[in-house]
Amino acid sequence: MTAVRSARPRRLPTTFLLLLALIALAVLWAAFAPKSSAAEAEDPNLAVREGRALFLVGCSSCHGLGAQGGNQAPSLIGVGAAAVDFQVGTGRMPLAAPAAQAARKTPLYNETQIRQLSAYVDSLAPGPAIPTVNLADGDLAYGGELFRTNCAQCHQAAGQGGALTNGKYAPNLGQATPTQIGEAMRTGPESMPVFSPGQLNDHQVNSIAKYVEFLKTPNDPGGHPIGTYGPVPEGLVAWLVGIGGLVVATLWIGSRIT
Amino acid sequence: MTGKPRGDHQPEGSPDLPAGGSTGGHDPNTRRVAGHEGETAAQATGSVIGRLRNAKGGGERSEDDQPREREDAMAGGRRAITDGDYRPTDSSRGEHARGPSGESMVGRRGLADDVDFQGPRPEDVDRRRERRSELVVFFWFVVSIIATFVFVIMNFAGNSHKQYYTPVLGVSLAFAVSGLGIGLIHWAKRLMPDEEAVQEREPHHSKPEELEATQATFIKGLDEFGFGKRPLLRRTLLAAGGALGLIAVVPVLNFGKLVGRSHSDLKETAWKTQPGEPPKRLVTQDGIPVRLGDLAGGALLTVFPGELKPGSTDEYEVPEVQTKADSTVILIRLRSDQQLKPVPGRENWTYDNHVAYSKICTHAGCPVSLYEQQTHHLLCPCHQSVFDVLDHARPIFGPAARPLPQLAIEVDEQGYFVARGDFPEPVGPSFWERG
Question: Nearest residue on chain B to A151, judged by CA atoms?
Answer without folding.
Answer: B370
